[in-house]
């Protein structure tokens, strides 16, 4: 009997190992194609009410609820993937480089624009999340002063505690909205540099974008820099096939965004605000590699365990926000790979 038990156990382990290997090979070869997108959209619709996502009626409370529900739970998976608590994409260069800094590369574009700020200037981060970006920079540049603003109270509390435990006195975080900044934030200027990493995408209307750019124009020093590291709707978005547009619209909605500004939109409106384009860097291939890994997981879950996804998302309001994250993970790679989204850096300076 004992031998039979161990025999069955061995067969079970071998079977599971074989299935796992087959699944791994299948996932490794997966690529986000248009035909797979069409099938995944149908599978998504069977587990999550996508019609609610496409209504696009998100306001500030929607964004706050999303992050309050997901920052300290769902984004732990991102921390595991990147090796950092920073809440942004891990960039994966297409070529071999002497240093591996995928989760820091976004900040290198910020460091390149620090200028005189390193000698006692002021830097503002918009949408700091857990505060990792400003805390890293504050440690790197002890003579500079860093202020972060965010619309989520839980972010403010966490980031201030995180900075304090590291003994940093040149960084602080406060509650504010960059599209309608308070007099207190305005008074903290002028700033040598304003930056955001995957946060300006929440300036998802012409009104919000105009309000922020007016603030940036007023509160940046002459020749001060604005650095935007983010995702954008592609310039060709309106000409893409319907399902490819839907992939981007669903990715936006999962993050509680109505419509990410495109790079041309940023450039046009920044020019109107008398901010001059300094640099435009495309990092789409590097971001796509990271988002493709997440998509593979989502794709397999939709294929094998749709009932589990459906039950989890329907079980509570917080889990529904996790479902929103799942929608974004399931569609962002499609949007980037098929042409309705791009990822990169825009740098503007104050003045001509």
UniProtKB/TrEMBL annotation:
Domain Methyltransferase residues, every copy: 120-240
Classification via InterPro entries: Methyltranfer_dom, SAM-dependent_MTases_sf
Keywords for this protein: Membrane, Transmembrane, Transmembrane helix
Top-rank taxon, per record: Eukaryota
TM stretches of this protein: 6-28, 297-314, 326-348
Pfam families: Methyltransf_31
CDD domains: AdoMet_MTases
Name this polypeptide is given: Methyltransferase domain-containing protein
Originating organism: Tetrabaena socialis
């Amino acid at each position: 009997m004992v031998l039979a038990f161990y025999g069955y156990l061995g067969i079970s382990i071998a079977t599971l190992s074989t299935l796992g290997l087959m699944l791994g090979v299948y996932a490794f070869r997966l690529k986000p194609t248009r035909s797979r997108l069409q099938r995944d959209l149908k599978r998504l619709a069977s587990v999550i009410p996508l019609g609610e996502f496409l209504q696009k009626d998100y306001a500030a409370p929607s964004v706050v609820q999303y992050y309050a529900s997901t920052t300290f739970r769902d984004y732990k998976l991102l921390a595991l993937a990147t090796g950092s608590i920073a809440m942004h994409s891990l960039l994966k260069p297409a070529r071999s480089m002497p240093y591996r800094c995928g989760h820091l590369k976004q900040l290198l574009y910020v460091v390149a624009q620090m200028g005189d700020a390193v000698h006692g200037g002021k830097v503002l981060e918009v949408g700091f999340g857990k505060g990792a970006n400003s805390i890293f920079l504050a440690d790197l540049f002890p003579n500079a002063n860093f202020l972060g603003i965010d619309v989520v109270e839980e972010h403010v509390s966490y980031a201030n505690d995180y900075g304090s435990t590291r003994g940093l006195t040149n960084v602080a975080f406060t509650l504010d909205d960059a599209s309608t900044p308070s007099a207190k934030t305005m008074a903290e200027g002028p700033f040598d540099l304003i930056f955001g990493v995957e946060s300006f995408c929440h300036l998802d209307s012409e009104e919000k974008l105009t309000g922020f750019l007016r603030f940036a124009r007023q509160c940046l020093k002459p020749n001060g820099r604005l650095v935007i590291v983010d995702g954008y709707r592609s310039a060709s978005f309106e000409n893409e096939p319907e399902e490819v547009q839907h992939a981007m619209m669903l990715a936006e909605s999962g993050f509680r965004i109505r419509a990410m500004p495109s790079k041309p939109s940023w450039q046009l409106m920044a020019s109107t605000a008398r901010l001059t384009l300094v640099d435009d860097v495309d990092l789409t291939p590097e971001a796509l590699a990271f988002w493709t890994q997440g998509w593979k997981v989502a794709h397999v879950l939709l294929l094998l365990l749709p009932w589990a996804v459906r039950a989890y998302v329907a079980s509570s309001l917080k889990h529904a926000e996790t479902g929103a994250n799942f929608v974004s993970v399931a569609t962002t790679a499609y949007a980037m790979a098929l042409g309705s989204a791009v990822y990169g850096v825009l740098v503007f300076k104050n003045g001509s």
